Amino acid sequence: MNNLENSNNFSPYLALIAVQLTFGSLPVIGKVVLKTIPSFALVGFRVGITALLLYFAQRYRGNLRLQDKKDYGRFAILSFFGVTLNQILFITGLSLTKASNTSLLAVTIPIFALSFSAFLGIERLGKIKVAGIVTAAIGVILLIDPRSASFSSETTIGDILIIINSFSYGIYVSISKDIITRNGAIKSIAWVFIFASVICVPLGLYSFSGVAVESITPVIWLLILHIAIVATLTPYLLNAWALARVNPSTVAVFIYLQPLIGFFTAIVFLDEKLDFKAIAAALLIFAGLFLVTKKFARE
User: Alpha-carbon distance 115 to 88, whole Å?
Assistant: First the structure.
């Protein structure tokens, strides 16, 4: 077993929990911002601001040059699946479907990630690992309750976009471990977003050109900054740092914590009640995480 995956080192798991806490704020805040600006404009701001901050962060640390010139092409491919396609599909899909649909369809990400990892020979498709992902997925479905989702003709396009987004992000997680490990988290994610900005920023500016700037309040601008820094830059960096230390399936399965965090946040701030269904869902999710991250599930 890789010494970076020492079972006594909980730092990657803490980082992955932080990823879900920061990513988890996106659906609700994104819905608010999308009432004012188009989805492509939001993607442009999100990618452009993140790319700019990462560029200066990496220049402060050193240079952006990659030792292996082939990595430029690899980062371009990684960028396409992990940011460009992923974010355009997610933000556009979010604008065309319900938040509950989005959360429910997100259960497919770890399934796609594990399938690609196994297909590419990056990790084994062990029975324990599969059981863990399925167990956690059942917990998410129980928590969200499919009856609250609305898979109608009005949300069909949005739902399909979210599924393709999950497929795209699953590819990104499964193929990015080696190149991120070689180049480091900050330099890797900087290049991922620099390549993505080549496509997303021009599309965003074109989309934003039809918006009356005076109609955008300071609160909306602050929420856009929150999406770029807290819900994009931070989780992508932490995800990359953790991915260099654990298997892709482990990174992916932690996504199942997002709805759980959202539910318990609602209990604290919105006085919602903790019922038996929520407790059962939480136990299933944690049991799934335990099975996927167990030592013998990685061997």
Answer: 23
Rounded to the nearest integer, the mean pLDDT of the chain is: 84
CB atoms within 10 A of CB 201: 19
H-assigned helices in the chain: 11-23, 26-34, 39-61, 70-79, 85-96, 99-105, 108-119, 127-144, 156-175, 177-183, 185-208, 218-228, 234-243, 248-253, 257-270, 276-293, 295-298
Chain-centroid distance, C-alpha 44: 17
Would you say the C-alpha torsion 28, 33, 34, 39 has a positive or negative sign?
negative
Distance CA 70, CA 79 (A): 14
Q: Residue 142: how many CB atoms within 10 A of its CB?
A: 17
Amino acid identity for residue 274 in this structure = L
Q: Residue with structure tokens 């259960």?
A: 107
What residues contact 236, with CB distance under 8 A and at least 6 apart? 50, 189, 192, 193
pTM of the model: 0.82
CA angle 183, 125, 286 (to 5 degrees): 85
pLDDT in tens, 193-225: 999 999 999 999 999 998 999 989 999 999 999
Neighbours of 160 (CB within 10 A): 15
